[in-house]
Fold these 3 entries.
Entry 1:
Amino acid sequence: MNDLDEAIARSLGRAAERAPRLPEGLAARVETRYRARRRRRQAVLAAAAVAVVAGGTVLVLRDTPASTTVATTPDRSAQPATVTAPDAAVTAQVPPPPTELSSSPEPNAPLTFTAEATPGPAGALPPPVEQVWPQAVRKIPARLADGRAYHPQLFLDDRTLLLTTESGFEKADAVHSYDLETRQATKIADVVTPAGSTTFASDFAAGDGHLVWWTARGNQVTIWAVPLGGGTAEKVATHATAGGLDRLQVADGTIYFSGQEAPGVYSVPLGGGTVERVERAGEHRLMAWPWVGVRAKEVSDGFTAIVNVETGEKKEAVVRPGESFFGCGLVMCSGSREGQAFVRMRDGGGEQRLDAMVPPGVAPALDRFLTYPIGDDGWEGVVLRDLTGGTQAELGIRPGKDGSIDTPMPASGGRLLTYELGEERIVIDLSKIP
Amino acid sequence: MEPDARFADFVAQRGDALLRYAYVLAGDPHDAADLVQEALLKLRASWSKVRHKDNPESYARTTISRLHIAVWRRRRRELPIGQVPDREHHDALPTGVDDTLWRLLAALPRRQRAVLVLRYYEQLTDEEIAGVLGVSRGTVRSQASRALDKLRAAVPASERSTP
């Protein structure tokens, strides 16, 4: 150990001595929440059983093919009602999906939740997603026709995905469009990684007929663009900022972005030119143009306060004492209170408590959807939940041998949820869920 | 409500250690408390199995670590957590180089900070850190290297040995 190593170890050790003490009665509080969750789960199971019995009764009385269907597929509407009483006002407030989509280098990187080795019974899972929202689900091969692996980044339109292929770990070497109907991939452009790059191509974003992304060498960020119709990627601009970019977006012929470690929103014309700071955005960061936001001090995640730089409209989220881990979209926020996850609207209305391990600080995708693993005694599966109606579907994902479970998250932009399942890749278009 | 006695014992014996870990990881007392509570709830749900097969404390620490970087994994957006935490939680305020380093550590991107905490506070190997955070070993090395570069640049060698 050198002197810096020792100094870090000493600093962390002394900081640990200043940590707060565990609150009194925490074990009892955890126990209460644990049992409440179990009770609710049992209520769901009971409701499902009632639905099956009701279907079975119909089967006996009428004995028709139609009722057989009912018996094998219990009425789903019986389930959500026992889980939650969602606020109907939420539905009316959901904005349309954003027109600009962007992605991260690992937009679909699943979170892995650890768990014990033995999965619990799968009987308590909600129905499969392809049954609940068939119009939103597609299955495509997990490999391209030439056998290569690929990574979906975003929807270019209703039937076209943007894919990257990679020459190494997270190192994209080309971008392709993929037709979900014909299952054909067409190369748009090669992705060049300049020598000495410290960050490979990241944050692919589409708009105005172009695709943009960035690479970095140390603190020097390069922004690239190529027409979606195909061509050679060109350098649009360079910008010095530590830690790379935070978000990148195309709107009105302009690329907007924020840095990872310093506040502020910047712009550069899509065709190239000078990078300029968006003065109206002040110290804010880009959320989804023209919305920019800040993070409040007492909450660990952000965009609780946002402002539209074009109209000056401001939106603040209600944050009550003791609440933290906020993640807000334009309308909905998720948060945590004494370890209890909840979602509600910015104005504080329509709160739903979630007895689930929701990743902290994650804003609901399209202000509507969350994914999280469920299971009472070991993970059983992963659900996609529509917060506006309380409907849930399970994604078909099961725990691995070590009991951990991968939970796919919607890509940045919110519309695409995708994951591999055996030899297939499931592609869910969240904007197609009615 | 009466908790499961062994679970309650575990929380009583190891809860503060988990909170210390969460605090150096998150750099904020509120976030640390939330992380611990969420991890304990998950541990309680799996208690009957974890208690027999695994080390409950290691299970809880991994859950805390992964919850902490969850937001980064999704969006790579980092949180400025550079403020010194509330004074009411302090038994002794940091001084000198410890204070400087703590502030610098708090200002690091979340992933870099997590790597340093796991290496220097938890004393894990790079391989173990990769396992806990669910990233490659190369990522662990590059993040550690970037973080150390920043700290090295900010704290002159002559000051580092000051107790």
Entry 2:
Amino acid sequence: MLVAGVDIGNNTVEVALAQVTEHKTVFLSSGIAPTTGVKGTTANITGVKFAINDALKKAGVDIKNLDLIRINEATPVISDMAMETITETIITESTMIGHNPSTPGGRGLGVGKTTLIFHLDKVKPGEEVIAIVPQSVDFEHAAAMINSASSRGVYVEGAVVQKDDGVLIANRLNNKIPIVDEVAYIDKVPLGMPAAVEVAEQGYTIKTLSNPYGIATVFKLSPEETKNIVPVARALIGNRSAVVIRTPAGDVQERRIPAGSIVLFGEKGRTTVDLDEGAKKVMEELDRIYPLHDAQGTAGTNVGGLLSKIRSTMADLTGQKPDSIKIQDILAVDTLVQQKVKGGLANEFFAEDAVGMAAMVKSSRLPMEKVAKIIEEELSVPVHIAGVEAQMAINGALTTPGTAKPLAILDLGGGSVDAAYLTADGKVKTVHMAGAGDMVNMLMGAELGITDKMLLEDLKCNPLAKVESMFSIRLEDETVKFFDSPLDPQLFARVVILKDDGMIPLPGNLKLEKIRTVRREAKKKVFVTNAIRALKQVAPAGNIRLLDFVVLLGGSALDFEIPDMISDALANYGVVAGRGNIRGTEGPRNAVATGLVLSG
Amino acid sequence: MGRYKVKPTILIYYDNDNMAQIPLRKLREGLEEEGVPWEEKEVHGNAQFLAKQAAQDSQLGIGIGLISDGTCLLQHSRMSVGNPIMKVMAGADTMENYRVLGANAARLAKNMPLKWF
């Protein structure tokens, strides 16, 4: 009898195809396709067909010969996530220029009134000014105008330039002054205002404008005003050049948005956590009252908005009322969000504190019968619903060489991390944790300021390298790889993503070390945290030490570093943990599909 | 060969001093803004030959060849001759392209990402 096990997951449909006789099961092939529509809905049929055809084609078998399809009773778990910033820095219009042009001109600190370069001839001798140079003025004229003003006794103390002309102008001046260039929105620089321009020596960073007291000294600020300037100083730390312009209102503030508190209703009582205390505190409290029955946020605050966002997405997906959606698990993570400064002059970004949160709900049973019926009609093959997902996954996982009962599995997916434990006497306990691969993408995107979803997926799944010469790259582990033919000049000196089919250059000034740190932290915050949380729930007596074998399954178990991170963390508990190898050939994929075939 | 060179520079070889004034000036601007030293010399031949020769003679292995019709090539001594890092064709849309090429020659020497038009 030719049997196909079909596992409809959140992101992929997996198929195992086998010839099953009374004594023996011979696996022929595996198939995979993206899930179409939300798991457990009739829209799945397209993906299911693709995956089955994939497997049939690999085995060289016609669909006519297929005798039976087994699908699983999918776990009715849906997860979603959201992120809210809890601080907000408002720089009202043009009070600082904090980008980092690669070649500013001159050096030092200059203070004066912002003056358009065309008006330098009207400035009285003895006055201190900062020249503002729009792109219509070429560097030779700019230098000539500044030199002529200086010779009349005007103190031109610095310049802000729109084009990439800083060094060219500086080289043509009689007096050396600091020049910040590549200021895109130079027309927004307020004129006639006191301003400070600072450029550090090559290899150094600015000292005065990155120091609140430095700014206070330059502008003679009161203690109160100095407090307000702190976010500006903070934003300029690490730059080689900067401009601070003092507009009348002061106009820079860091606002702490009332993040609100979250109320957790659990089996062991209820508790209220103020989100200001951080995500860690939320997770500690959650642990105390677990299992969770529902969670609510204070209305009108960010956490309230965050949870109601998740609730309404869930309601849409499941067709239930938002009020009746009960949140069964949350994962809160402290993070930073790169936010573009509103009214900035040169595309400056600020890192704001934020909390990312994933939530999971159990919906009513998914209508798998409907899905089964449609597959049966469309493919004219009998379809059986053959049991609980976790049980099937364990059956499949046990085909990994070197495993034995009792066994725990960790299914590292896109939306949730699921754990199941099979006792020696065949009982199965399962648990689902909110937050997995998709949340890693969200955290990475926020912290790196990247919105391109494809790029984020590539960044998550592949290591990085820095192109060091036309023939060599330096990899993350500091080793160097040489090439026979020269690399594409587009890649030159860039940080690249190393993919099987080539290298993708990254935009902008993203540093390799920074991306790597963010990537690894995001993976740890989500997967290691959830692996431990999940195993604690299923382990005998809640003690991970009592587990012997843990098999990692699912798409995220294919990741090049997540399994190692989890193995490493679990090694502290004396647990053998590793990536599954279903049927000795399939790696961590296809466990449920394989289990379905074996369940007959 | 055997020429005594004191400092590492990028070399610009051009075939006609009079004809090449504006592109040459723009190349210089690009190099100066990026802060990398260069030298210029009048040499005769086609653009490919000039670029190749400049790259070979340059201590940094980076050469620019510019001929009077405006064709300009950025060449690295370790790249094959038919394979310039960057090229500005005769009749370029804007003279700023020469400045970008000059800046890129410098960025190549500084191991910084290149700019594109």
Entry 3:
Amino acid sequence: MFESTALNDKNRRVEKLWRLLFCAMTVMLVVPVLLILGVLVVKGGPAISMDFLFTDPTDGMTAGGVFPALIGTVWLVAVALLLSVPLGVAAALYLSEYAPDNLLTRIINLAIINLAGVPSIVHALFGVGAFVIFFQFGTSILAASLTLAVMTLPVVIVATRESMQSVPHAFREACWNMGATRWQTIRHVVLPNSISGILTGVILEVSRTAGETAPIMFTGAALFLPYLPQSVWDQTMAMSLHLFVVATQVPGVPEHLPFGVALVLISMVLAMNAVSIGFRMYLRGKKKW
Amino acid sequence: MDSSGAQASGTFDADRRNASWWVDRVVQALVFTGGVSAIVLIIGIFVFITGHGFGFITDHMDVGEFFTSPKWRPTSDNNPTYGALALIAGTASVTGLAMLVAVPFSLGAAIFIAEFAKGKTREVLKVLVELLAAIPSVVWGFIGLSIMNPLIIETFDVPVGLNVLNAGVILGLMAAPIMTTIAEDALKAVPEGFREAAEALGATRWQVIFKVVLPAARNGLVAAVLLGVGRGFGETMAVLMASGHSINLPTSPFDSVRALTATIAAELGETAAGSEHYQALFTLGILLFGVTFVINLTADLFIRGRRKP
């Protein structure tokens, strides 16, 4: 009575077929990209050395290293983080701890979704219109970082809110029952329990910010500068824009150079992401509730 | 806790406005400001780009020409024309091809990850997809320029490899991880009870997927595709570098095209602030903002539809 019928066999075959098809689709999504990354490593690898990382570009950017661009990216990311993390964490705190389920909250959520979906070039236009011209910051690190901060704000808000909401509600209730105010509860219960999740989100934001090109093109990043930025009012070079420039704007660049720049940029971004993912997995393993 | 000593006096002290109370109030006001900042920013974006583009719309724009003429010649000395049709066609063709590539693969991958893969495989695939989503767009553009370009020239024997096909495939690969992640979330959100009920009736795995899970997750899947479209539509650097950037009404995948986003990126640096050309670029920005706004809003409605069964 438990012998498989013809129908069972057919069903099993069909299922195997579908499984194989979906598996093939997944593989075809992942493999080309891995191949491409492989090519980047093979072609860009030889260009990379300590000299490449720590010297200036020379000969009209057809030789030399990427040092000023690397430093510039660090400036841009650091200033953008200083601006967006406090604002993003505050917004997440409001949404997770204070916001009632009303029209305003729904509009805020909608605004966050839209902020994340606005094309990067529109953020660039906003940056030019608002920060460069209206607030008269000129093309500077400050204007570029503000643009980047606005653009990556949704990343911080969403990641932070999620990690705050994963703190069990009973923790808060226990704290309130002791007579603590909302802020005391947040300060001593919610934040300590979600700080690592917030950090994960921040690392993710760093990787996003470091790779962006369009928003900084017209707000503060320069094609080539013979000096390093001294303050937030200076322009700066950046890795992402440098890749665009050596790949498209400069004639006579030897082939390995843009591959080297691309490899450095993508290593930075993927390393940050890997740290963020690893951190998250570690936390999930450690979670006590 | 420095409570106000209501217990000591034996009566209930209604006034609890001590230091902690005030700190609480101030923090509440601060985080509220943070919360509404998202609204302020999105309105700010709208105000600033329309503010800069409005002069063009009222004074120079010929709506008919803008949407029907393929002649984008803003730098012509005697008679600049602003026909955005070729740019719209460029964006549409590249995004369309990207979706053709990305939708089946990312939905397939999402089904595999959510329904078939287990344990380690699942974790590894999810991490890989997440890493794919992290590759910066300028790197994708460079890949189109340096790897896809010679590949297309060689495979299809065409003179130029920077075209709709190149940009479409690149954009497809860029949009796929995002669509996969959102679609997988949608599939995971289908209650386990649905699957168990179907299995209890004797349905096989694929019957469960096609007859139960996919219909139940339909709204989320539509939202995933919409957000993918939005991503492709707004992508700038990759399209700028891989599409060939020449004004064309494409008739085949091997034609070079120019996208709306790429036009802004390529021309904004060369215009004087406030000039007609500059305002025209902001007008393109308004168009981009409007379309992505509608796409995101629609996607959100679909997701909300899923949450409220």
